[in-house]
Specification:
Ferritin, mainly alpha
Length: 151
């Protein structure tokens, strides 16, 4: 598999980790901080996986595709501006937009490759990013549209 593809994917995961940790350091909401720490950890796991894959420690086909329930919230609600006193719902929406961008990046990158192994890996990484989007959109919807008495 192409090392330049893997290097780009690894760099993308490093940037995602740094993005979430930077956001973690800017917000004060403890629930949002917990979610950001979790998702940053997921991005770190992706980086480690890709490094191990590049070094031949993990065989092709290790990542499995899974069903994702895409609510498409990020596609219909604009991301708020990053600021220290954000509500947790805003943090989740920013994260959903970031995960959507990552999903789109890997999906479009997959379309550029004719090598079946590279294409398959990119589609599976895109699926992982979509799972993250699903999680933060779930958190967003439960925070932004909390259940009320009688509803």
């Amino acid at each position: 598999m192409s090392n330049s593809f893997l290097d780009l994917a690894i760099q993308r995961e490093i940037e995602a980790y740094e993005f979430y940790m930077d956001l973690y350091n800017k917000v004060s909401d403890t629930t949002a901080k917990d979610a950001l720490k979790w998702i940053a950890g997921e991005e770190k796991k992706h980086e480690e996986f890709l490094r191990n894959y590049k070094e031949g420690k993990i065989p092709a086909g290790t990542i499995k595709l899974s069903e994702v329930d895409d609510h498409k919230i990020a596609e219909h609600v604009s991301a708020p501006e990053v600021k220290p006193q954000m509500d947790s719902k805003d943090v989740y929406l920013i994260a959903a937009h970031r995960e959507l961008a990552s999903f789109t990046f890997y999906t479009e990158f997959a379309k550029l490759h004719s090598d079946a192994e590279i294409k398959d890996m990119l589609i599976k990484i895109a699926n992982e990013e979509l799972k993250h989007k699903e999680k933060v959109e779930y958190l967003y919807s439960n925070t932004a549209f909390s259940q009320t008495e009688g509803g």
